[in-house]
Amino acid sequence: MAGKTLVAVALLSLFANVRAIMFYLEPNAEKCLREEVQANVLVSGEYEVSEATGQTANFIVTDSKGHTLSKKEDISRGKFSFVTETFDTFQICFTSHVPPHMRGIKQEVALNIKRGIEAKSYEGIGEAAKLKPMEVELKRLEDLSESIVQAFSWMRKNEEEMRDTNESTNSRVLYFSIFSMCCLLGLATWQVLYLRRFFKAKKLIDISRSRDC
């Protein structure tokens, strides 16, 4: 039983999709973070920006096609969430705005991002469905198992794509090597024939005498 518990904890820590980061936002500057997320994954996050008199900060989340997933202006703290439709790279940007007559100061930004089962509120799900604590935990473990299966499937798909790419690259390298060898052989043959004609024209060698010998 203890061994199974350790395995479950190890898998949970392996596939826990929680990322917390803290950075400084320069005055009148933009700071963006990018993250790749699989399809049909819930992404949620919390952010907090330190106060600076006269300064404002904006927040926006976009995908690789430029679609806006979440956007707020003049922020101090807040939350966001969205569900990805396809495997894509989303971008989280914080922008600082300072009036022209002000110098401005750096603002500290704290960002906490959760993905998958870590982004779900199982307490709220249990209350809405009137589930018992054990049923809520079983639901969480079921979602965890599904996310692990999806993660392994995604890694297997990537491995297959990388293998196909390697095989295609190897074939192209082989054909290019054969083509290069043919070019070198053709060039060497041309050089021999050219030098032979050159020496013959300059009468540096006597072809007929060399043949008699």
UniProtKB/TrEMBL annotation:
It is a single-pass type I membrane protein. It is found in: Membrane. The keyword Ribosomal protein does not apply. Its main location: membrane. The chain crosses the membrane at residues 173-195. Coiled coil: none annotated. Keywords: Developmental protein, Membrane, Signal, Transmembrane, Transmembrane helix. Residues 1-20 form the signal peptide. Residues 30-140 form the GOLD domain. Belongs to the EMP24/GP25L family. This is Transmembrane emp24 domain-containing protein bai isoform X3. It comes from Neodiprion lecontei (Redheaded pine sawfly).
